[in-house]
Design goal:
Chain lengths: 111, 265
Amino acid sequence: MTTPSRFPEPYGQGSGANLADILERVLDKGVVIAGDIRINLLDIELLTVKLRLIVASVDKAKEMGIDWWESDPALSSRARRDELTRENAELRERLARLEELEPGRAPKEAP
Amino acid sequence: MTTGLRYVYAVCRPFGTPLQAQLRGVGGAPPALLHHHGLVAVVSTVPEADFCESALKAHLEDLDWLATTARAHQGVVDALTTVTTPLPLRLATVFRDDSAVRMMIEAREEDFRGLLDRLHGRVEWGVKVYLEPEPAEPEPAEAARPASGRDYLRRRRLQSHAQEEKWQRAERFAHSLHERLAERAEDVRMHPPQNSALSGTPGQNVLNAAYLVSRAHSEEFVELVDRTKDEAPGIRVELTGPWAAYSFSGEASGAEPAVGSGEGR
């Protein structure tokens, strides 16, 4: 960085401040006022900053061992599908067990 | 363009210096000053087509749009910082028209005055400390190949031990730097360390802090940070600023929203 100079010479802002520096301030800091247009920036931050930027280079992220979104049902459609499949199988199994317990009440009516 | 909405960047006290004529805000419109009750809201007109709820929600998911808008927002706040002490508002604070902005000022008047008094003549400096990435491991010479599995394991153990050592040294350095800087600052906020994939900055971020410093003491503060830059090998210190006091403006609204869900769980 350059030698110290008279204030208010900006220090790395604009060019040097990275996008994350700016985003962490304008999205997460500053005075919060409910305007006429309501937007939940916390949702946006989670989706865009934490996820989309990283997922923008999925391969790079995976290389670094960042892959938590894959197993988080809230974030991954595949994980959600897996979760549903798993839950479905579990329910079927429980139903089958219940039917076994009460054979009299489980007449086979399947088509 | 159809109708326009009012985008508010910041609230400040009236100031004498005019804004640069070429200054442009979000969407390229020039910012204007809306005086009310002895305060000034810095506003610009944005197209309703882009800033109504549904459009805004979609736009904010678009990283390019978000980056451009965030930089434009910050550009206006930054220009204000050179002439006054602005209270920066959070991105995308939008009202129907000027009278809605005036009503907002009336509703929050006391908050604004309290914050403006507290922040008057002060700016924010950002300081980050990184553990520099390892230089690429030199390929061990043929002769130095581990002779056995046990050799291999021992070498691995030594490597991870060295890494742990470096990490601890970086943390100790960050801690002592932070203490020295905090002594010269009026207030301090710790931000979560940045993910290097996200910031595009090499190295492991071990400290990400914001310091509230008066303009009068800023030069001294900057020099102090500069002097530490060569103190520790393998550790990088980065300074950004002067920022408007973003990190010290959020409290007036009550409880801080819960943060720190960075682990994704």
